[in-house]
Amino acid sequence: MNDQVIDPVGADADCPARGPSGEMRVALPSADAVTTLAEAREAIDGLDAALATLLEHRTAVAAVVQRLKPVGGFAGRDPERERRIVEAMAARAPSLGPERLAPIVNAIIEAGLDAAESGR
Ligand SMILES: C=C(O[C@@H]1C=C(C(=O)O)C=C[C@H]1O)C(=O)O
């Protein structure tokens, strides 16, 4: 796990800190520093809040992509682009690797396409 904290001031479990230009700052707790169940759950809640915020923004941007592509939505899926996304994420998440990340990325992409097609 990354032993890194990006400006934890202002970040809490329910609301990742937002910078003035819309960037998100999130505490990245070191697994070594987490020793109790309560601390572990607090750390996970903060990470999940950041993930949810990122997913909400990703969904909005993916919907724009669907409108810009010649064929959008599920009909316009691009397996090669999706494979490259998995590979790029695996480079940043080596403990998961491409095999474990692929179904996660697929679920994220399908949820985004469903949200875009249904107008949310
Ligand atoms: C967003 C695109 O459309 C689809 C959705 C993707 C996504 O949500 O990341 C990726 C590839 C496509 O299947 C794209 O082509 O870039």
TrEMBL record:
Molecular-function GO term, any one: chorismate mutase activity
GO BP, sorted A to Z: chorismate metabolic process
Domain Chorismate mutase, first and last residues per copy: 31-120
Region (Disordered), start-end ranges: 1-20
Pfam families: CM_2
SUPFAM superfamilies the UniProt entry points to: Chorismate mutase II
Organism domain of life: Bacteria
Protein name per its UniProtKB record: Chorismate mutase
